[in-house]
Amino acid sequence: MVELRLSGVRKEYDGVTALNDVSLRVADGEFFTLVGPSGCGKTTTLRAIAGFEDLTAGTVRFGDREMAGVPPEERGVGLVFQNYALFPHMTVAENVGYGLRFRDPPGAMTDEERVLDLLELVDLDGFEGRDPDELSGGQQQRVALARALAPGPDLLLLDEPMSALDARLRDDLRTQVSRIQSDLGITTVYVTHDQEEALAISDRVAVMNDGRIEQVGRPEDVYRRPESRFVAEFVGENNLFSGETRAHETRGSLVAVRGHEFLVPGSTADSVTFCVRPEALRLGGGENAFSATVETVEFLGEAFRVHLDWDGKPITLRVPEAPDDEGVRVGFDPDDVHVIDGGTADIVEQR
Ligand code: ADP
Ligand code: MG
C-alpha cells in the first residue's frame, strides 16, 4: 500500500485550466473522496494520478517516489470507471483473469485460485462462467472492481463507479465497496459528484470547485464546518444569511439580516455570512426567531422537509412534524450557527 501526495498540480488544455494548483495527501490505507460538480476537475485529477496526463506543473508522489515519466502500467494502480468496460466476449472469470496478466510477481496462488478468491471478495462466487450481459449493472461493476484488484495494486482509483446504477443498486454497491476497501486496507481515491455518497463512504473528502480544492476534511467536519459559501451550499442543504454587525454582546454579535437581528457567536467582523442547517431550524421560535410562510412540505420518511418563504428569501427546514399553519415562527439556537465569512478565524488570518 502507499501514501499518495499531489503538490501544486496544474493541468491546462489549450486555454482551459482543468486543475489549478491542486495539493493533497492521501494516507496509506485511507478511503479518500474527490467530490464536486461536473467539470470541476475530478476525472483529470484521477488521470493525473494514474499517469494518463502530462502535468502543466506540479508533482505526483507515491510514497517517496516521484511519478513524472512513469507510465500508467508501471504505477501499480487499479482503475474502475463509470461505464463497466468489461470485455463483452469474455466470461466473468476471463475478465477478472485478464487483470492477472499484470500481476507481478505471480504470487502463491494459481491464476484460477486467485480469480475465485477475487470473485468471493466481491460476492460473486458461482458467477465465473457467466457472460457480462447476463449480469446486472451492479454485478458488472463488482467484476470490474475484481479485475482492477487482480494484479494487487497499491492504489485503487474509482471514477463515479455507481453513477450509471439505480438508487437501490447504488446503495448495495456502496456498502460492498466500503467493506472491500477496509478488508484490503488499500489506499483508495474515489470520485463522485454525489455529496451524500461522498459523506457516507469516505474517511476524508476533498470538495472541488472549478479546478481547485475548496476544503479537505472528515465528512462530519466538512458538513458541520464548511469553510466557504460553495462548500456550505454544495455539501448537504444549508441556509445562508449575510448581514451587518450592529452590536457586540458577551455571547456574540448582533447581526442584522433583512432588518432582523440575530445573535451570532464566533464573529467580530462588520460584515458576516453564517449558515444554519435545515435540521437546526425549529418551528415555534426560540432565541433567533423570525416569521415566515410555508411554501411546500415534503415527507422524507424520517422527517419532513419544509420550504419556507421569508420575505422573498427561501429557507429550508427539516422537522419531525409538518407545520399545521401556513404562517410559522422559526428559530435557531445561537450554538447551531456556523460562521463562514467574518469569523474570528478569518480575522486572525488577515493579520
Ligand atoms: P469532472 O470529472 O469533475 O466532471 P473533468 O476533470 O473531466 O471534470 O474536467 C475538468 C475540466 O477540464 C472541464 O472544464 C473539462 O471540459 C476540461 N477537460 C477535461 N478533459 C479535457 C480535454 N481532453 N481537452 C480539453 N478540455 C478538457
Ligand atoms: Mg468526471
UniProtKB/TrEMBL annotation:
Pfam families in the cross-refs: ABC_tran, TOBE_2
Major localisation: membrane
Stretches assigned to the ABC transporter domain: 4-235
PANTHER family, per database record: SPERMIDINE/PUTRESCINE IMPORT ATP-BINDING PROTEIN POTA, SPERMIDINE_PUTRESCINE IMPORT ATP-BINDING PROTEIN POTA
Gene Ontology CC, one term: ATP-binding cassette (ABC) transporter complex
Recorded family membership: Belongs to the ABC transporter superfamily. Sulfate/tungstate importer (TC 3.A.1.6) family.
Organism: Haladaptatus paucihalophilus DX253
Function: Part of the ABC transporter complex WtpABC involved in molybdate/tungstate import. Responsible for energy coupling to the transport system.
MF terms in GO: ABC-type tungstate transporter activity; ATP binding; ATP hydrolysis activity
Protein name listed in UniProt: Molybdate/tungstate import ATP-binding protein WtpC
Gene3D superfamilies noted in UniProt: 2.40.50.100, Nucleic acid-binding proteins, P-loop containing nucleotide triphosphate hydrolases
Enzyme Commission (EC) number: 7.3.2.6
Top-rank EC class of the record's enzyme: translocase
Keyword ATP-binding assigned: yes
Catalyzed reaction equations: tungstate(in) + ATP + H2O = tungstate(out) + ADP + phosphate + H(+)
Record key words, sorted: ATP-binding, Molybdenum, Nucleotide-binding, Transport
Membrane topology listed for this record: Peripheral membrane protein
Subunit description: The complex is composed of two ATP-binding proteins (WtpC), two transmembrane proteins (WtpB) and a solute-binding protein (WtpA).
SUPFAM superfamilies linked: MOP-like (SSF50331), P-loop containing nucleoside triphosphate hydrolases (SSF52540)
